[in-house]
Amino acid sequence: MTFKTLRGFVLAAGTYIAGCGGGGGEPTPDAATERDAGVAQDNCPSGDNIRRASELSGPCCARVSNADRLGAPEFRLTELSVASPPVLSMQLIVDVVRSFIDEERMVLVMDVDAETEADVAVRLGHAELDANDHFAFVEGVAPTDSGDSERWNAVTVRGTIADETLRTTPAEQTVFIPAFNADGSLSFELPLREFEIVEMSMTEDRTCVGTRESRFAYSTESAVLRTYITVEDSVGRQLVVGPLINVDFCAMLAGFPLNFPQLCTDIDRSEWMSPPDALCDEAGCRLDCDPMTDCNAWAMNAGFSAHGVEIAE
Q1: Angle, alpha carbons 16-40-51 (nearest 5°)
Q2: Among 24, 84, 235, 295, which residue has the fewest nearby CB atoms (within 10 Å)?
Q3: Which of 197, 191, 213, 105 has its CA nearest to residue 160?
Q4: pLDDT digits (tens, 9 = 90+) for 109-164
């Protein structure tokens, strides 16, 4: 794929996304000129596609304060700023993911049991709204045409809290996060192995992780996650966004065009523009491998933000 081809897809798809009326809507401006801690409240996501936008309040546009439940705070991820793999940091992909998250069509929630800060349990995963309009973890609802029906179920990781900063060990199970189109159809899934919260710094009331820094985005300097996406987990999972993006997830990670018609495994590894940089096997995931031979996963490093929500029992 030439730079000209990729640029054409970025511009065309960006125009489509902007026309959908999402939470962001406009291209992201230079954060250095937009950042203003005093205007977070006015910058909360709004519009017809934002559920009960008037509820969003405070510096991180939280739906619920965790101040009265410091030992059991509950969060929803509100921004994901990926540093690697490279394709996931493209502005087009950033805007796509931001729109899905703002509109709660891509949901990752965390239920933290922090009564003992030296041994914290964090239940995390995909959630849907229940009859009371609260988030609820799902069980056994994933479509079976692309995997086990329980792959969207929540997983539990262990961790610690010190100085209002949460750190966890890597998850033993793969965390699958689905994203849905506006019509409810599945757009894509993120299959995340060894999902680990490297650090997550919370405010004193444990309601905010990062703040809403502009009309378009949250700050993500307060939290870092590390995970891995394997060739095995991503091949055959189609990423479909509107009429312009329709590509095998693995092929996209490998650097092929956003309408590439083949699976990554149909193409010789020597032609991959962004080969895997990690190895995941029975011993775990690590960076000690050869991208052209035995690497079988992409290491994903990202900053993120989160805010208080209500998660059903």
Answers
A1: 50
A2: 84
A3: 197
A4: 999 999 999 999 999 999 999 999 999 999 999 999 989 999 999 999 999 999 99
- Cβ proximity of 256 and 234 under 8 Å: no
DSSP secondary structure string for all residues of 169-185: PPPSSPEEEEEE-TTS-
Q: Which two tokens stand for residue 244?
A: 């312009």
The H or E element that residue 197 is part of is strand 186-201
Give the pair of three-digit tokens for residue 85: 């793999």
Tokens read off for 200: 């997550």
**Residues 46-68: b if buried by 16+ CB within 10 A, e if exposed:** beebbeeeeebebbbbbbbbbee
Question: How many C-beta neighbours within 10 Å does residue 5 have?
Answer: 12
Nearest to 209 by CA among 90, 83, 309, 98: 309
Contacts of 182 (CB under 8 A, 6+ apart): 20, 49, 103, 105
Residue 32 to residues 18, 36, 44, 102, 209, Cα–Cα distance (Å): 22, 9, 18, 21, 20
pLDDT band (50, 70, 90) for residue 42: confident
